[in-house]
């Protein structure tokens, strides 16, 4: 393991804040806040004005914090200028729900600065002129989701999923869904 850098350098700041990332990316930026309601407001402002791209974002918040800061939480959801907002879930979970829209926050995007796009896909409910979609998930999920770092069956589950999806996905392979589903059920962290 190499030496850890402390602080925030300009190269990292440029990549994380000024380039729209088209893959999974986790970055942390400390905001000077002492209370959850202050943080929700500051994070909304920061995300809208400092982060390039407006396709999707996620908020992870404990139920008791959401309840205690309901007004600030609702204001954050209303104020975030992203096409997809996932609450307590990765944005890929939002993408996987076809009734929800998937696309950039079109009101902020033009043909001269397209950012994350000016149209949506999915939207099987045929909502006209959607602004954003919001996915809500519980704080704790059982069984442990496939993508969680502490799913102790992730190696076997990954192999089963690759077998299913990586080699044609015909009907016999589709029936093999039972194997990954059963493995996922055994992945509950205790």
Description:
With 190 residues, this protein is mainly alpha-helical. It has 2 domains: 24-136, no CATH class; 141-190, no CATH class. The chain contains 8 helices and 5 strands; from the N terminus they run H-H-E-H-H-E-H-E-E-E-H-H-H. The chain has helices at residues 10-18, 36-50, 63-68, 70-79, 91-95, 154-165, 171-175, 178-185, and strands at residues 56-59, 84-87, 101-102, 121-122, 133-136. The strands form 2 sheets. It has a 3-stranded parallel sheet with strand order 1-2-5. The protein has a two-stranded antiparallel sheet with strand order 3-4. Helix 2 (36-50) runs parallel beside helix 4 (70-79) and helix 6 packs antiparallel against helix 8. It is globular and about 50 Å long. The two termini are 29 Å apart. Residues 1-5 have low confidence and may be disordered. This is Aldehyde dehydrogenase domain-containing protein.
